[in-house]
User: What shape does this take?
Amino acid sequence: MFSYNEFECVFRHCDVDGDGKVSPMELQHCVKNVCGEISEQEVEDIVSSLDSDGDGLLGLEDFIGLVKGKGKQEEGIEENIKDLKEAFRMYAMEGSEGITPTSLKRMLNRLGESKTIEECMVMIDHFDLDGDGVLSFNEFIVMMQ
Assistant: This one.
């Protein structure tokens, strides 16, 4: 990717007034010059999601996060994956690396939904991409979408 100096150079280019911060208007202007139109609301949302000190502006580290694609939105995705892993572990039987018809039936019963093993097999078959009869974590993610 880019070196720190390259990030700094791009940051200085976007920091038109030289105050060491990139405002939403400066970012909008910079993005417009590089890739085309972007709305004021989109820029406000981007700055809001990356502004680490709450001043409504992007510092150099915030800007590097933008270029690298990191921010509160990414943190939200990481949190969702963590939640999905926790839910997956609840559905999978202890010692199992996947959700079996038996473990799915057990969990659904705990949630007050009574299903037969055959019904659970059909549910699993629908999302069992590799056909092994067990839902892996990746297959579980597909199912939850």
